Structure formats: C-alpha cells, structure tokens
Amino acid sequence: MKTLKGVIAATPTPLNADLSIDTDRLIGHCRWLLGDGGCDGINLLGTTGEATSFSVEQRIAAMRAVAQSGVPLQRMMVGTGASALADAVALTRAARELGFAGALLLPPFYYKGIDAESLANHVGEVIAKAGPFGLKIYLYHIPQNTGVPFVAEAIARLRERYADIVVGLKDSSGDIAFSRSLAVQFPGFDVFPSSEGSLTEWKSSRFAGCISATTNVTGALSQIAWSDPDSEKGRQAAASAMAIRGVLGGFPLMASVKAALAAMTGDGGWERLMPPLRRLSPAERAELFSRLGKTDFAAQHAPATAG
Questions:
Q1: Where does the chain show beta strands of DSSP type E?
Q2: Which domain, by its residues, includes 94?
Q3: Is 74 inside any structural domain?
Q4: Per the domain annotation, does 1 fall within a domain?
C-alpha cells in the first residue's frame, strides 16, 4: 500500500567536522520532522540532502543507520539516483531491502538528449537488477540540474510496463502546469510538486502532496495548508509558508535551509555543506535573517539536535 502522501520534507544531510555524515543528528531531525515538525513524510538523500556529493557506500551507510533507528520507514522515500547504472541499482536495491517506502530515482544525468524509450529502458534495467519484489519507484524530474527530463512519453511507457512499481514523480522543475498535466494524464500516479504553494490546490489538481526543501522549516504551516486547503486558515498558512520559502530561495537553497536549521536549533554544525557547496557568508547570513524577520519564521518550532 502506498503511504507517502501530504507534506514531505526533502531533508538536508547534517555533517560532522570531517565532512562525514552525522547520522545521529540526521535521525534526530527525521524524528522531529515526523512529529512536531508537521511533516507526513521525508525524502532522505535527495538534492537538498546533497546525495550526489556522497559515495554509494556513504549513502547506503546513512540509509542503514536510519533504517535501524526505528524511524518509520513507511513514511520515507530515499534518493537512489546515480549516473552509473550499477550505482543506481545498488542504491535502489538497498532501499528495497532496508524497507523504505519508495526509491526516488534520478535519470542518468551525464549524457543529454536521451529519448523516451532509452530513458524507460534505463529505469527498467534498474528495476530488473534491483529486484522488483516490494519495490516502489518515484521518478525525480529536476531537468534544471540533470538536463534529462522525465517527459510524459517516458512516463507513459513506464506506467504501461511497471504500473505497480513506478508509482509517482517528484516535479522539481517549478512548472506547475506540467505537474497538473501529469496528474490528469496518469490517474493513480502520485505527482508531488516541490513547492508549498501547491498544497491549497491538491484536491483540484489531484496532487499527492508536495516534496520541498523548505518544509524542513515550514512543515507546521504546510500541514495546515494540506489538511485544510479550502479554508481561510489553510490559505493563510500556505501564504506564510511561501513567504518563508521565498526568502530562503533568494539565497543558495541548501545553505539557507541549513542556516535556518542552525538558528532554530542553536547548533551551528548544521551549516556545514559538502564541497563544492559552501555555507552562507556573514553578509549573506545577516541579510537572510533580516528578511526572515519579516515573516513567520520566528514562530516555527525548534527541531531536535540529536538521535
């Protein structure tokens, strides 16, 4: 049964001083997100989680630590995309064997101009080699990063061949019209836009929820918008969430989300990023919090800092 619905946070990956993954802090944050953080689910090791900056071994070790922590995996999808087929297979197999509710699969992103049939065949190879039993795949459409879109034709082929396995898509393109068109074209296929602004129209547009980096900060507000989208309270909550999102998005997003979490927790370690990404400069940080001071950011709860 598919259980991934609603407000899903694309969680950042906290780092130790030596740039290894701080699994204790990661597990603590996941627990907070699924509780007081207001989220229905988590996208672990995606773009916000800097996944492609880690080795396959690092990613699987983090997945295993989370799986062994007792965090409810039926509420978690995990990024398993990689440019190399064998790496995508290893990560997707690990997600299935560890019991995550879904694998979020990037397209093979080095070679561009891939046609729909070749893209569908790639996903098919991942499914065959990772093992289809119990596997649920969510396609990750983020063409501004990958240069390889999951076009409707490729999705149609995958749905024809693997309807019980390829069950949804995260649309991080920012093109809400594309999200709407997929939800209409493929009934039963779970489409997740990447912005809290979509939450007030999830019923009319048939969205399964949203998967967003900024719901690490706006989760409680976003949950109000998701749970009560037709009310004035829901619309106001969505507007407040989008105001915070707009500020965070005005800076390098991974750095700004981590800076916000550092401020919310009082834990400066949250600001570490894997090269080539960098933390905000002092001037950028000052400007970020000056702008956040004009939103409802200060009213957000502080997340946990340890496992």
A1: 6-10, 41-44, 76-79, 102-105, 137-141, 166-171, 190-193, 209-212
A2: 6-299
A3: yes
A4: no
| DSSP-based three-state secondary structure for 232 | helix
pLDDT confidence bin for 305, thresholds 50/70/90: low
User: In this structure, are residues 90 and 59 in contact, taking their beta carbons and an 8 Å threshold?
Assistant: no
60 is in an annotated binding site: no
Q: Show the DSSP H helices in 189-252 as ranges.
A: 202-205, 215-227, 232-248
Quote the DSSP letter at residue 15.
B
The answer to whether 48 is a known ligand-binding residue is yes
Q: Just list the catalytic residues.
A: 140, 170
Residue whose token pair is 């905000």? 280
Which one-letter DSSP state was computed for residue 47? Answer: T
pLDDT digits over 184-196, tens only?
Answer: 999 999 999 999 9
Cα–Cα distance, 199 to 5 (Å, whole number)? 11
> pTM for this one?
0.94
Q: Does residue 307 lie in a domain region? A: no
Cross-sheet strand order for the sheet of 102-105: 190-193, 166-171, 137-141, 102-105, 76-79, 41-44, 6-10, 209-212
